[in-house]
Amino acid sequence: NNKFYRHGQGWHCSEVGIVGAMVTDACFSARPSDVIIATLPKSGTTWMKSLLYATVHRRERPVVGAAAADQHPLNSWGPHDLIKFFEYQLYTRDRVPDLDRLPDPRLFATHVPFVSLPSSVVATPGCKIVYVCRDPKDHLVSLWDFVNKYFRVKDGLEPLSVEAAAELFCAGLTPFGPYWDHVLGYWRAHRADPDKVLFFRYEEMQRDPAAHVRRLAEFVGLPFSSEEEDGGVVDAVVGLCSFERMRGMAPTKGGRTEFPIGVVPNSSFFRQGVVGDWVNHLSPEMARRIDAITADKFRGSGLVV
Ligand code: A3P
């Protein structure tokens, strides 16, 4: 069911997410070559999965040229199949997957806050975490739209007003929230060990995706060579994973992804893909309130969102 629960370490989620996180913590054994994407839902997870997959596999799965891009696995399998969520797809109440045979580097994703990550992810040197943070107002609007369209209305419930969604958000009652604790947890981990935790902002990725792809490649130990730079590989990765391209692909238009909390069309992960759409939904007063909470929570952390 989709009822909300509170994890003992202070965050909220459906039962599936909480149990999945606990089973992952108990059973996942990290390797030094693992890379884990961590995000709040609706913060650019699908985009980062695609960028990471394309970057890591670019040598055996070339991205340059229309033909190469057309045959790329991202076209046919979809980002959520290629990089699976620990707590939604891999570990559940009654399933512990065998991940030993997966080739290195293994790529995973999670929405779980830093404090509740599988302990072996944190303890294993070399195992890396890529975090993507998004402006809280855009995260909220994206989440509100997604939950209404793909869960509430489908389940015969009234859509939630944006005002009601904002109230819940401010009270910390969003999946894997409170938002601020989630962001700060990964921000502090990044500050403590930037080689372990990479910290990206969705808005900055939008401003300069190529620079972020380069940083990502360096972070995972696969920097682009000068031949690759000259051959346009960085731009090809960016192009392959662009919003327009991914939204237009056949598996996006026709496919569905199954999570234990429900089945959603792949198109649900591609709504607008812009910065600042909150302005079309949130009142100036609501926006000011969220900004004030954010400024208060992040004060002294060195983090400005
Ligand atoms: P919007 O609802 O604001 O459009 P997630 O993947 O974490 O669920 O995040 C979904 C959000 O990322 C949606 O935001 C979606 O449109 C946006 N998004 C998906 N793919 C993207 C891409 N390739 N580039 C930029 N934004 C993308």
TrEMBL record:
Claim: DNA damage is one of the keywords in the record: no
GO function terms (MF aspect): sulfotransferase activity
Example of a GO biological process term: sulfation
Top-tier EC class: transferase
Cellular component GO terms held in the UniProt record: cytoplasm
Keywords: Transferase
Domain Sulfotransferase: 32-302
InterPro entries: P-loop_NTPase (IPR027417), Sulfotransferase_dom (IPR000863)
EC number, as in UniProt: 2.8.2.-
Key word Nucleus present: no
Entry similarity comment: Belongs to the sulfotransferase 1 family.
Entry protein name: Sulfotransferase
Lineage: Eukaryota, Viridiplantae, Streptophyta, Embryophyta, Tracheophyta
